Automatic annotation (TrEMBL):
This is DsrE family protein. Signal peptide: none annotated. It comes from Ferviditalea candida. Pfam families: DsrE. SUPFAM superfamilies: DsrEFH-like (SSF75169).
Length: 126
């Protein structure tokens, strides 16, 4: 990858317990990817729960069960080239394995997350 390509990392730390906080990271990641950034999203703490199979199709962003579901935002991000990673300890915290999740690029540990942050031009946490 060229050094001219900017990198953006969006870390999602909240999950199904806060649906109103779930769409913005995907939206911003998608926007950055469309601006030709190399974009990764890292899911940790309860953020990993958003990637469990079946969750995104039923999770509505707006209170009251109206509006778009999370899978709309996930698919936009995928189509734009955003890469999804899960922090290893969050799998156990969310009682799941990689097989319980939608397709992701990989599982990362603390060292990898710190390296991603150090190399990023933008690092945003939700």
């Amino acid at each position: 990858m060229s050094e001219d390509v900017k990198k953006a990392v969006y870390m999602q730390t909240t999950g199904v317990e806060a649906p109103h906080r779930s769409a913005s990271p995907f939206f911003l990641a998608t926007t950055a990817a469309l601006m030709d950034y190399d974009v990764s999203m890292v899911f940790t703490v309860t953020g990993t729960s958003l990637l469990k199979k079946g969750v995104a199709e039923s999770l509505r962003i707006k209170e009251g069960g109206e509006g778009a579901t999370l899978d709309f935002f996930i698919e936009q991000a995928r189509e734009a080239g955003v890469k999804f990673y899960v922090c290893a300890p969050s799998l156990d915290l969310n009682d799941c394995t990689v097989d319980d999740l939608i397709e992701i690029e990989g599982v990362v540990g603390g060292t990898a997350v710190n390296e991603m942050a150090a190399e990023a031009d933008i690092f945003v946490t939700f």
